[in-house]
Every structure is written in C-alpha cells, then in structure tokens.
Amino acid sequence: MPVYAAAALASAWAAVSVPAEREANWRLGKADMLISGGQAEEVLRDLPAGSRTTPYHDGETVVASHGGYLIREYRAVDLADHVNDGAYPVRAGRPPAAAGEVAITAALATALRVGPGDSVRAGLPERRLAVVGIVDTPDKLSREALLVAPSQELSAGGRRGFLVQLPPAAAGWHPPLGQGRTDLGYLLRDSLGPDPSEQALVAAGIAVVVAFAGAQVVLLVAAAFAVAARRQRRELGLVAAVGATGRQLTRIVLANGLVLGLFAGALGVVLGVLTAQVGRSWLQRLVDRPLAEEGIAAWQLPGIALLAVVAGLLAALGPARAVARAPVQAALANREAAGSRGSRRLLITGLAVSAVGIILTTWAAQPEVAGVAIVAFGSGLILLGVAACGPAMVGLAGRLAGFLPTAVRLAWRHGARHQFRTGAAVAAVCAATAGSVGLMLFTAADTRTGSATQLDARTGQILIPADVARLLNADQARMLRQALPVQHLQHLTVADTEVAYANVAPQPGPPPVVSQTVVVGGEDVVRAMTGQEPGQAIRNAMDNGQAVAFYPEFISDGRLRLNGAAQPRAIPAVLAAAPAYFRDRSVLPGALISKETAALLGIRTRPGGIIIDTTRRPKPDELATARNIVLGAQAQASPTDVPANPVRLIAGQPDNAAGPRLGPIALLLALVSGCVTLIASATAVGLATSELRSDLSTLAAVGAGPRITRWITAAHAGLVVGLGVPLGALAGVAPAAGVIALRPETAWKVPWPAVGVVIVLAPSLAVIGSAALTKSRLVLVRRLT
Predict the structure, then answer these.
(1) How far apart are alpha carbons 729 and 163 in whole angstroms?
(2) Which chain regions cross the lipid bilayer (predicted)?
(3) What is each CA distance from 22 to 289, 294, 326, in whole angstroms?
(4) How far is Cα 619 from Cα 630, in angstroms, rounded to an integer?
(5) How confident is the model at residue 491 (pLDDT cuts 50, 70, 90)?
(6) N or C terminus: fewer CB in 10 A for the chain?
(7) If 0-12 CB within 10 Å is exposed, 13-18 middle and 19+ buried, where does residue 558 land?
(8) In Å, how far are 86, 122, 289, 393 from 90, measured between CA atoms?
C-alpha cells in the first residue's frame, strides 16, 4: 500500500509539476513582463530599443445567463499577437478581431451552453456579442472569462497595461520605479516561480509525510512479523537444534522481509502507475491546470520499490533478533520467553526525544531563525518520542485492567503481555493521526489577520453604493424589498464634506482606516450603524445641532472637525460607537449631522447609497435574487450612468462566521488517516485474535458465551485506537504550531468536521467494525504440552 501510494503520487507529481518556463507562458505568453497602472505609458518611452508591446486590459463585467446575471472576468487582448502565444490556446473557432466579437473560455461555454456561432449578452452597458472562439486559460482551466479585442472593453474599470517582450540583448531589464512613479505595477517573468521559502516548506512537508508514512508501514509490518516469528518458534527451534547459529536464524527471518518487500514493491509500483494514468482527467480537474506529458524519471520507480524492501527488512529486524536470542528449549516447547523491561527505558527515551523536538521546533519557529527544515526535523522527533511511549502506555493499561470486565481485562492484559507488538500498532495509529492532524491544521489556517477580519457591515446588513443605488427604479426597489427579509431600508444623503481624524488618537498606533463620509439624516442612520436605538443623550445632541461620530478617533475635546468643500470648522459632537471598524467607504458614514445643521453650515448634499437592515441573515437564494436585480440594473443602465466595475451585493457576517477552509487536501488527509486507523486496529486485532485462540477455547470449555469473542476484539481495538489517537492528536499539534509560527500571516482555525473524522469517527468505526466482523463461534483447539 505505501509503495502503491508513493508510485501513484510520484506519477501525479510528475504530471502536475511543469517547468517554470511553461508556467510563465501560461501567465504572460512570450512577454517578459506586464506593466500596469496609470503611468504605464510613460514607461514605454524608456523601453530598450527593439522591444515589442501589446495592450492588456483585464477587469470584471456582467454576463447574462439563463438564470439572470453573473459577474465574470474579461480580458481585452490581441490573441493574434505572438506575444500572447501560449497564454490563450484556442480550442475551437478563432480569436476575436472586431467589435461585437468575443471568445469565451471552455468553462464559461459549458456554463452558458454556447459555442462558436452563438451569441451572449455581456458588458456594462449590456450588448450582444457573437461567440467566435473557445479558448483556455492554462493557469486556471476552470476560469469563466470572456476575451475581446483591444479597445473593445466590456467595462470601464479594471487594470490597464502592456505586455512587453524585450530583445535578447536587454534581458534582465527592469522598469525604473523612481521619478515619482507611484501608480505603477509590473509582473516579471522570472518572479512567477516559487520562492526558496515556499520550496523549502514544500520539501519539509513532503519529508514529514514520507517519514510518517514509513514509520506506519514499519510498525504495522513489524507487528505482523513478530506474530509470524512466534508461530514459527518450533520450526526455528528445530533449525537451531541441528546446529544453526543465531546469525543464520536472523537471516531466515530477514529473508521473509526481503521476499515480501520485493513482491510488494513490484506490485505496488505497477498498480500505482496504472492508477495515475487512469486518473489523469480527474487529476487535471483537481489541479485546474494542464498536465505535463513527461513521465517520471526511470530511476524513481525502482527507488520507490526499494522502499518496500527497506521497510520489510526494518520490520523483520526486531523479530529476527528476538528469534536469535530465544533459548532453544523454550522454542522447541513452543513456550514464550519472559518479556523484558525495555518499555520503561523506551518511555524515558521517548520523553527525552520529544523534549528535544519541542525545543528545536520552538527555537526554529522564531522569526529571527525561521528554519523550515529544523521545524520539520523537530516535529519528526516529537512524533518519534510520542510513538515510543506506546509500549509503556499499553503496559499501564494492562495494570489497570483488573478493575474492568472480563472481556476487556483479557484483551488488555494480552496486549500488555505483548506490549511491543501492541505498542507498534498504537504507534502506527499515532503517526497517522499526528500527520493528518498537523497538516489539516496548517492547511486550514486562516490567512486573514488583524483588521483584515473586520467585515464591511453588521450581521445581515446589505450595502448598495450610491452609483448603483441611483440606477434602481421603483419596480426594482420594490422587487428588492420582496426578495430580502427587509427590516429597514435607509436611503442616505451624503454631505459635501468629510470628517477629519482627531489630533490625539485614543489608542496607540496609527488610526484605523474607516469611512470619513458625513451623512445628513436622523435617528435611522444611528440605528443602521450601531444596531441599537439611539439614547436620549444622542437625540438631545442632534436636536441641539451637534454631530454624531461613529468612531472615537474623530472626537477630540468633545468636538469633531469637518473638512471639504465647506469652510473647515469644528463642531460639538457625541459618540455613538459602531460595533466594529467597518471598512466600507462607499456607503457607511463616519459621522452624522442633521438637516438643520447642514443648512446652517451651508453644506451641500447629494444622494448616497442604501443601507438595508434585515430581520435575519438572508438565505443564499434570497441573496442571489437580490444580486440578480442589482446586476440587471447595472447592465441595463445608459452608457453615461453605468458604473466602472460591476458591484456585488454582499451581506455582512459576524467575525466568527468565516470558518476554516475545508479544501480537498484536508478531507483527503482525514480519509487517509481514518483508513490507516482502521487498518492498524484491524491488524492488531487480527494478530491478537490468532494468538488468543487457545485462551478462547479455554473460555468455551468453562462455559463462556459465544459473544465473548466479539467483546474481546472490540476491547483490543479500543486499546489500540484509544491510546494511538490521543497521542497522535497531541503530537500533530506541534508541527502545525511550528509551521504556522513561520507564517505570521496565518492564524489558527480548526477544521472540526475533518478533525472529528480522525479523532472520533475513525476510532469508533474501528471498534464497532472489529466486533461486527469477528465470528462469535468459539472453536476448541488442542493445547501443545
């Protein structure tokens, strides 16, 4: 199984890993850089002689679909220009060349059910476009996008720039960023590959996974070899009785590991490569990029097969040494020699190794060190140390078994008598759980930190900017009210002034970036911003011509300052604190003044956006209907009123609403860990049951019921997973903590469903499955005397 998995993963990795040059072609075609921004044209004058350029514009637009309107990407590029070769391969038809023509990606063609010769309605404002071609965007095959000819933009906003191909003599030229060029961005071809830190992180992750998987294999196979060697005690004793040395007995047992390793390696490689070839289409959909045609290197497959041979030899090494040391008389009598007290030494060694791993991981995770390899090595030491505690934990469980029912007592004491074999199964479950929990915690770590977690509105609140609000007619506004659970719908009036930050900030550090807009209104605005009824003090203040600030950073000495078209002035103000620092500047205000105050100060006003307070968080279908109404208003607007970019309708969510990302990797890890837990427990139970047949026969002779076998197997499985899963979960937190500490932009987010599969569902299935699949019939066997 591990060789099969390694061969399949190696083949898949070879197909997914494409050369950096090809990946750059997917992003930039044959260009050496993309220059964008308002000052991009100025840079063109500084290009080396012989450079080729082609215009580039990407943005978002509105597309009419069968169910309404969608927001999709679009690009205005010249697909016929050789600078774009490789970036947009044409599947069918031809590139767009004139006004009214469009090429769409294969994903969008599937979604809209159109092809060359059909037409789509898209753009701001909406227009009908003839589909002349189907293209791919290789850097993301699932992208739903439209491509039009240059100067045929579908919306006024977006990023404008130029693709630049340098002459060979000017390779390595960079655009000058000085001379006051602040509105300039560029993407270089040689910057598209992974940086060294990312490569080191991936290498460390692969090393940890390989080490964990190898440990599981060796531990599980070692347990099986231990039982096989014990069942061959008499035969090996006869070989020793006729003059075989301990070294020869060792070689006999090691030969078993060698033969099984060779067979498993060959079979695993063949099946793994076949699986990778059959699953190429599925893999391409998973990675969302074209797969490389190159296969894996010829030396890699024998190397992967060699893993099985090494694992077999390592697994057979312990049983082989035990056979060589066993007394010949005990082997001929098929008696088991008394166990050693090595578990105590192993426990002490494991604790020491874990302590060293914790120290290394903590030290390497510090920002001034940031050693990815050391973190991986320390994490491996922690796992190794925790796994080494397994035999001692099994022995402790055997001592506590005297207080438990007969079936549990028999199973646990049998496991304690063979604590190294049972401890190997515990360690295998521990390794699987640790690897899965650690990688799941890291992949689910949220990359949002600090103020980035602040949302744009209160929970359930919906914001519509002013440039979109003015496009809604009476029918659309009525449909919007019907589509959403509206409690209050507030049309804002914006003052021609802004509120200034106070000179003295109430807290250390720079002030938060919040809206400085001033609106003209009354108590409804306070209710929309704070979610509470305004108190009597706020009502009195507004009646007396005072302003209301929604953030304390705007008030100093009981006054706030207004800047803008009107004469700058400071007026008395009170605080009605918003529940969070809302980022939205297009709708939400920072301060409020009454109509009378605006008139007294001579402040002009204009229509603003719309704040919709809902009775509850809108359901997805309700929000989709509302979005369709708003997008329709934008698409049907006149060219003079249409917004530069399509505006999305988003409902505010609580800070804790954004849970961890449960991607396919986390779910796959949970599945793999669950399978290993089931296999390890089944292996341990099967080996124990094969040795307990004589004891079960004795129980049958004294009148035990047939269900005793099921209870014993369930208890043995419970011992294995009950010790392995908690130890593994504990050991898995360490590598996740170390890697997350290396990435300051990450934060802890626990994917509880996936973790629950690993630490609750899989162990429960292991215990229940062991009992359900065990034959309850007791068989009488003859004891050897």
Answers:
(1) 50
(2) 201-228, 249-276, 296-317, 346-365, 371-401, 422-445, 665-688, 717-742, 754-773
(3) 11, 13, 61
(4) 17
(5) very high
(6) C
(7) exposed
(8) 10, 21, 15, 63
Q: Which two tokens stand for residue 231?
A: 């069942």
Scanning the structure block, which residue is given the tokens 């060789």? Answer: 3
CB atoms within 10 A of CB 722: 19
First to last CA, the chain: 40
pLDDT digits (tens, 9 = 90+) for 521-574: 999 999 999 988 898 999 999 999 999 999 988 998 899 999 875 567 889 999
Measured between alpha carbons, how far is 264 from 269 in angstroms, rounded to an integer? Answer: 8
The residues near 502 (Cβ < 8 Å, ≥ 6 apart) are 553, 554, 555, 556, 560, 561
- pLDDT per position as a tens digit, 397-433: 888 888 888 888 888 888 888 777 787 778 777 877 7
Residue 238, SS3 per DSSP: helix
CA dist 774 and 776 (Å) reads 6
Strand 145-148 versus strand 101-105 pairing type: antiparallel
> Structure tokens of 19?
């050369």
Within 8 A by CB and 6+ apart from 263, the residues are none
Q: What is the rounded CA–CA span in Å between residue 595 and residue 520?
A: 6
pTM for this entry: 0.70
Rounded to the nearest 10°, the torsion over CA 519, 525, 530, 534 is 120
Listed in sequence order, the residues at least 6 apart from 312 whose beta carbon sits closer than 8 Å to its beta carbon are: 221, 256, 257, 258, 260, 261, 264
In this structure, the chain runs to a length of 785
Give the long-range contacts of residues 628-632, CB within 8 A, separation 24 or more.
Answer: 628/67, 628/68, 628/69, 629/472, 629/476, 629/479, 629/480, 629/483, 630/464, 630/468, 630/472, 630/480, 631/62, 631/68, 631/69, 631/70, 631/71, 632/68, 632/69, 632/476
Q: Which amino acid is at 518?
A: V
- Distance, in Å, from the CA atom of 528 to the CA atom of 459, rounded to the nearest integer, reads 11
Cβ contacts of 730 within 8 Å, gap of 6 or more = 386, 434
Q: Which two tokens stand for residue 199?
A: 């490569």
Candidates 438, 502, 460, 410; CA nearest to 715 is 410
Q: What is the spatial distance between Cα 672 and Cα 31, in angstroms, rounded to a whole number?
A: 43
Report phi then psi at 568, rounded to 5.
-60, 135
- The CA distance from 244 to 321, in Å, is 14
For 511-541, give one letter per residue: b (16+ CB within 10 A) or e: ebebbbbbbbbeebbbbbbbeeebeeebeeb
Partners of 610 in beta bridges: 464, 491
Nearest to 213 by CA among 443, 7, 420, 12: 7
Q: Cα separation of 621 and 618, whole Å? A: 8
> Contact, 2 vs 311, CB < 8 A?
yes
